Amino acid sequence: MQGKKKRSGFEKLTMVVVWVMIILTLGGVVLAALQPLNLF
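and the corresponding structure tokens:
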């Protein structure tokens, strides 16, 4: 891991935002798929 450069704070923030958006998108798709089943 020595050759890999350390990530800057901006890169870490970007990765966190990307992951949050992916999770929210998947969650929205799942909820939209389940809504017609009236589970909630």
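(Above: one complete record from the training split.) The chain has one helix and no strands.
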